[in-house]
Amino acid sequence: MNQNSGRDLLHYEIMGANEGAPWLVFVHGAGGSIRTWKFQVEHFSKNFRLLLLDLRDHGYSKNMIPDYDAYDFEIIASDILKVIDKLNITKAHFMSLSVGSVILQKLDIMRPKLIDKLVMAGAIFDGSTFMHIFVHCGKLLTYILPFRLFYSLFSFIVLPRKNHRLSRYIFRRQSKRMTTVEYLKWVQLYKPFFKLIKKYVTRELPRPCLIVMGDQDHIFGKAARKFAAKQKNAVLSIIKGCGHVVSIESPKNFNQLASDFLENIDVPAEVKVDKPIPYKWKELRALGA
Fold first, then answer.
1. Distance CA 267, CA 255 (A)
2. CB–CB of 118/212 below 8 Å?
3. Shortest CA distance to 99 belongs to which of 202, 183, 15, 12?
4. pLDDT tens, the chain, 289 aa long
5. Rounded to two decimals, what is the model's pTM?
6. Is 241 left (phi over 0), alpha (psi -120 to 50) or beta?
7. Which of 81, 265, 271, 273 makes the best surface tag, with the fewest CB within 10 Å?
């Protein structure tokens, strides 16, 4: 790779309230992009200064330098901190989705004074035997199946129901920006994954954290309940009738839960999924979803 042709800073966008408003930083999951948060931007931009990022190799964050043969969570977290430091952000709320929650766990360890409150949608806290089997089988399949076919299969495993269709569509479409080489670098995160998870879940959570899960999240839901039960600063809210990607499947509920939490309003332990989004496939494609 020609180092002179790359970019040393993640692609990011700033939206929302005036410069004096609290910062809210969004961290998407693997295969996503800034567009992952399409159903949150309008809601949160009223009261917060939003920082949305495309992680390395995702969205418009292409040809990042320095280049690496494989990634770990320190590399990914450091990319985010470079943007944070460039913008002179000293305190911010953070919101994550899926694997983004693991990235936030690394950020919380690396720069604890930076984070005010955490909101984690479809959070991952699992270092169980099942997750070891799940991750290693996934790694093996990446060398057997074409990347696109594997990603499609994986999306059905995590999001198997009819009401998860929109989430599957958005993530499969966004993942098309990634190349096979880029994807294989991200797969290497499985190596430090279990060590980081173990370190994070066994420590006392030093700040308020809202964890929003769907009751249909059959892979990650149990571990999230277990983590929240042990952490006095963690609040768990379950959206009934919802899968792993709660911010897309039930955006009205998720947005309200997160807003209330950030504004120190008590959130309920359970809510029912809101009405399906009246989306049209052509509109989603036009928006880059």
1. 11
2. no
3. 183
4. 334 468 999 999 999 988 889 999 999 998 889 999 999 999 999 999 999 999 999 999 999 999 999 999 999 999 999 999 999 999 999 999 999 999 999 999 999 999 999 999 999 998 666 666 766 666 676 677 676 777 777 788 888 888 888 888 887 777 777 888 888 888 888 888 888 998 999 999 999 999 999 999 988 999 999 999 999 999 999 999 999 999 999 999 999 999 999 999 999 999 998 876 666 655 555 545 5
5. 0.90
6. left
7. 265
* C-beta separation of 67 from 187 below 8 A: no
- What secondary structure does DSSP assign to 107-132, as a single string? HHHH-GGGEEEEEEES-----SHHHH
Q: Confirm if 7 and 82 have CB atoms less than 8 A apart.
A: no
Following DSSP, what letter does each residue of 141-152 receive, concatenated? Answer: HHTTS-HHHHHH
Tokens matching residue 156: 């059905």
Buried b (16+ CB within 10 A) or exposed e, 56-89: bbbbebbebeeeeeebbbebbbebbeebbeeeee
Q: Where are the domains of the chain?
A: 3-286
Residue 168: C-alpha distances to residues 36, 93, 123, 211, 262 (Å)? 12, 27, 17, 21, 28
CATH class of the domain defined by 3-286: alpha beta
